[in-house]
User: Fold this.
Amino acid sequence: MGKDNDMRGLSELEINEINAEIAHAPYRSSVAIEALKIVQKQRRWVSDDSLVAIAEHLEMSAEELEGIATFYNHIYRHPVGEKIILFCNSVSCWIRDSDGLEAHICSRLGVGPGETTPDDAYTFIPVPCLGACDRAPVMMVGDDLHQDLDQDKIDGILPALANESLVNRGDDQR
Assistant:
């Protein structure tokens, strides 16, 4: 269970990071969110097997941990791309044509809402609010917030993402 490449259990690195959090907590299960984030940081998502291993390590039920994991929309319970694109579809964004922009992004990426690009580079996820209503419509790409979106701004962001993906992968082909 302690192997770094064991995708079913927890790696030694994950256990050490979780244990470091436990050392500062009043009880083991109080670090549930941090433990989920630690595993997700290593694997990009939390599989069923990983969730069970985390729950066992925290001495809590898998069902209880599943309830925590599914409550937070930044814990991914299915495989996601290397970068997550969170697109706000709140009322403020909707009033400013988020529906049309969402369709434009889906067309540009070749995916639907909640889907990952075939190269595993991006996952597109509509979300209820990103907390920047005064600058609607908005989206986040990784940790970067993009505001006052229109099709031209999106077209400027998406090619930059494609180029970044190619550079990070060391790929010379498009």
The radius of gyration is 18 Å. The longest helix spans residues 151-169.
